[in-house]
Design goal:
Dehydroquinate synthase-like, alpha domain, about 400 residues, two-stranded antiparallel sheet, Rossmann fold, single chain, 2 domains, alpha/beta, 15 helices
Length: about 400
């Protein structure tokens, strides 16, 4: 049987690995039918964490059992510490103990951490079992659940161990965002803004004109916002599944952002906060190198700040930054490659020279004593009057 009708259906075209992203309020209550619709028929291991499981675990178990699925649940700890080889091993231990077979499946119920670890477990166990993503955070709904990147962190860098492994489907229920803590919601907006900068000027302008709605999680903007982000990511992934070329633009803000996360031992910033700071700094690098003008930096910085995200770097030295960036996935033969904006809606991937980056670091003074843009500058009255 086919999957139930949904408000938005975004296809990800990858040949025999193609799948749909289903965006529908209340879709948690249709999970059983959806799983049957994509060909699942065995047992399902629900991977979650205590917070999400307390909110939605019983609902998911009930609808899956009603559709005839036998379920087990494996809970990871909350937050980034779960994204480790230790917790990957615990999932695999449970699957072995329960004698899961290749026809059985894994369902990730949670944010990006849960999705990444559960997906890597699905890719690894018996060399691959079916996998369904049910993202419950904004970051996961607009970004990490789509595209098949799975994995865990290494103490020296983020996402260094993993695999490309596509889900059978991604089921997005915007209603679950109502229980998202404010900090997590705001952090997710960094990934949303990223899509406007890298691929869609009109979408970026939409975000500029709906700042209050974004800050207040207004339900009228969420479905279309999530849909547009998924459309952009699906189009990029379909053209470059394994990040050999254009898909690298999805890492805008992440070269500096991942260095920040590792430097802060994955506890100082949540992912979106680090990405927001990273986008501001990578745009500043672009301006310093003459690749974009000041307006690009100012508009982006203003939008990031206005939605409530941090923009300033910590008080770290250049060696901390350079060392952290060395562990980025885009490093090739020791050369750091970074996504740099040319304009709103267009970016490029550039190699960064250490001496150039060190000059930028010292001349722009990223700690905030002096900047290429005034951190307290507000948009002109003209632009403010256009915001709804």
């Amino acid at each position: 049987m086919g999957a139930p009708a949904c408000e938005h259906r975004v296809p990800v075209f990858l040949g025999d690995r193609s799948y749909d992203i289903l965006i529908q309020a209340g879709s948690l209550n249709q999970l059983g039918d959806i799983c049957q619709g994509v060909g699942l028929s065995g047992r399902i291991a629900i991977i979650s964490n205590p917070i999400v499981h307390a909110l939605y675990g019983r609902v998911v178990q009930r609808v899956l059992k009603r559709a005839g699925f036998a379920c087990i649940t494996v809970l990871l700890p909350n937050g980034e510490p779960a994204k480790s080889m230790t917790w990957l091993g615990k999932i695999l231990d449970e699957l072995v103990a329960k004698r899961f077979e290749r026809r059985d499946a894994i369902l990730a119920l949670g944010g990006g951490v849960v999705g990444d670890v559960a997906g890597f477990a699905a890719a690894s166990y018996l060399r691959g079992v079916p996998f369904v993503q049910v993202p419950t955070t904004l970051v996961a709904q607009v970004d990490s659940s789509v595209g098949g990147k799975t994995g865990v962190n290494h103490p020296l860098g983020k996402n260094l161990i993993g695999a490309f492994y596509q889900p059978k489907t991604v089921v997005i229920d915007p209603h679950v965002l109502q229980t998202l803590p404010k900090r997590e919601w705001v952090a997710g907006l960094a990934e949303v803004i990223k899509y406007g900068v890298i691929a869609d000027q009109g979408f970026f302008e939409f975000l500029e004109n709906h700042i209050e709605d974004l800050r207040n999680q207004h339900e009228t903007v969420i479905p279309d916002m999530v849909r547009r982000c998924c459309e952009i990511k699906a189009e990029v992934v379909a053209g470059d599944e394994r990040e050999a070329g254009r898909r690298k633009i999805l890492n805008y803000g992440h070269t500096v952002g991942h260095a920040l996360e590792a430097w802060g031992k994955y506890s100082t910033w949540v992912h979106g906060e680090a990405v927001g700071i990273g986008m501001v700094q990578e745009a500043s690098i672009g301006q310093f190198l003459g690749r974009c003008d000041r307006e690009v930096v100012e508009r982006q910085t203003e939008l990031i700040r206005e939605v409530g995200l941090p923009v300033a770097m910590p008080k770290w030295g250049f060696s901390d930054l350079w060392s952290g960036m060395q562990h980025d996935k885009k490093v090739v033969k020791g050369q750091i490659n970074c996504v740099i904006p040319e304009s709103i809606g267009r970016v490029q991937v550039l190699p960064l020279d250490r001496s150039d980056l060190q000059k930028w670091f010292s001349q722009t003074n990223v700690h905030g004593k002096r900047r290429t843009t005034d951190p307290h500058k507000r948009v002109s009255q003209n632009r403010l009057s256009k915001k709804k």
